Automatic annotation (TrEMBL):
Gene3D superfamilies: 3.30.70.330. Transmembrane segments: none annotated. The keyword Oxidoreductase does not apply. Residues 50-128, 130-209, 222-288 form the RRM domain. Pfam families: RRM_1. This is RNA binding motif protein-like protein. CDD domains: RRM1_hnRNPR_like (cd12249). SUPFAM superfamilies: RNA-binding domain, RBD. One of its GO terms (molecular function) is RNA binding. PROSITE patterns: RRM (PS50102). Keywords: RNA-binding. It comes from Euroglyphus maynei. InterPro entries: Nucleotide-bd_a/b_plait_sf (IPR012677), RBD_domain_sf (IPR035979), RRM_dom (IPR000504).
Length: 288
């Protein structure tokens, strides 16, 4: 791909945006088409369910070809094409529609569409993650103190969940941001060794679930949080494993288990059983 073709793609995008009355911007390694100029910027459309991911985009394929194609299922709210430092297309992008129905229609219509001969693109609903996991926090802070400390370094926080208390060695929590872009920028800022929270080195990673938890659950010391669980281990396995200690000599009352990808929450009937399980399972392994 030559510099002339890259420059030409920019000119074609600007011309297309002018004809369709859309905004155009370039920031953080992406070219952004939209939203429409007549759209009230304060009326933000949630990305959840309305955005699709496009993969396997040919390196010589740009917005002037993609936008007319992805307008067929419905009107586009915004398109983001990932661009490298040289201005070349990185092979993937995102299209957001005004509603979930158009996004679902786009997946059905355009997944495996041959945009070039024998070159099908991949289209699927985008799994935007607006939440980060924060580990190695003090066990005696409040939810608001956690928000205030993280907000010193990142913006766009809309909610947080904190797990602490005297029965836990360290506290941990989840911070939710306004959108995926802000979440990604926050994760980048908390690169290992870069920022301290409460004079500690935090462990920061993508949260693996969009499930919501209420404050009653957060403050419940009858719940154990378990990470790094193999994907083939089921909730039934976890229920059996975490209800017996000391080779089955002591039975603990597990009310329920909620597994989410590679982590889980073990709900005990009371804090005493949860503490006994915590003390016992610190050095144990499940299925090697």
């Amino acid at each position: 791909m030559t510099q002339n073709s890259i420059d030409q793609s920019k000119d074609l995008l600007i011309s297309l945006a002018k004809n369709l009355n859309y905004r155009v911007a370039q920031e953080n390694g992406q070219r952004i088409f939209g939203p429409p100029l007549d759209w009230n910027e304060e009326s933000v459309i949630s990305e959840k369910g309305t955005e699709i991911f496009i993969g396997r985009i040919p390196c010589d394929c740009f917005e002037n070809e993609l936008i007319p194609l992805f307008e067929k299922p419905g009107r586009i709210y915004k398109m983001r094409l990932m661009i490298d430092f040289c201005g070349k297309n990185r092979g993937y992008g995102f299209v957001q529609y005004f509603n979930k129905e158009d996004a679902q229609r786009a997946v059905k219509m355009l997944n495996r569409f041959e945009i070039r001969k024998r070159w099908p693109i991949g289209v699927m609903l985008s799994r935007n993650n607006n939440r980060l996991f924060f580990g190695n926090l003090p066990n005696n802070i409040t939810k608001q103190e956690m928000i205030d400390e993280v907000a010193k370094h990142t913006s766009g926080i809309i909610n947080a969940i904190y797990y602490g208390g005297p029965n836990r060695t360290n506290g941990f929590g989840f911070v939710e941001y306004e959108n995926h872009k802000m979440t990604a920028l926050a994760r980048r800022k908390f690169f290992p060794g870069s920022i301290l929270l409460f004079d500690r080195q935090p462990k920061v990673d993508w949260a693996k679930s969009e499930e919501e938890f209420d404050d009653d659950f957060v403050s419940n010391n009858s719940v154990l949080y378990v990470r790094f669980i193999k994907l083939d281990i089921t909730e039934k396995h976890l229920m059996e494993f975490f209800s017996r200690i000391h080779d089955g000599q002591i039975l603990l009352n597990v009310n329920r288990v909620k597994k989410i990808r590679n982590f889980a929450f073990i709900h005990y009937e009371n804090p005493k059983d949860a503490q006994m399980a915590y003390d016992y399972f610190q050095s144990k392994f499940l299925h090697n």
